[in-house]
Amino acid sequence: MSKVTAVTDAQGQIVVIGHGHLSEATAKKSGLKGAQGGLWALPGQQLHELDVPENVEGIKGFRELHDKVRPHLRAKP
Questions:
Q1: Per residue in 21-32, pLDDT tens?
Q2: Residue 51's pLDDT band (boundaries 50, 70, 90)?
Q3: Any residues with CB less than 8 A from the CB of 21 and at least 6 apart, and which?
Q4: What is the pTM of this model?
Q5: Which of 1, 14, 44, 56 could be a cystine partner for 10, CB 3.0 to 4.6 Å?
Q6: Does any domain span residue 54?
Q7: Residue 77 resides in a domain
Q8: Neighbours of 3 (CB within 10 A)
């Protein structure tokens, strides 16, 4: 299993994928202090923190990573 953070645009297209749960909200919940790196969703974008059943750490190509992550994104309302 892999923890993945993805940001999608207003049309539901993946803008960026990061390994781990990298949002500010997760850092606050975990009580992390100090400088933290992470992903932000801009207006019109949505942040998704996912637990993907496949191990995605060794994937080298964006297309393959995209194909593994896409099915786990929440459906757009």
A1: 656 666 666 666
A2: confident
A3: 3, 5, 49
A4: 0.72
A5: 44
A6: yes
A7: no
A8: 15
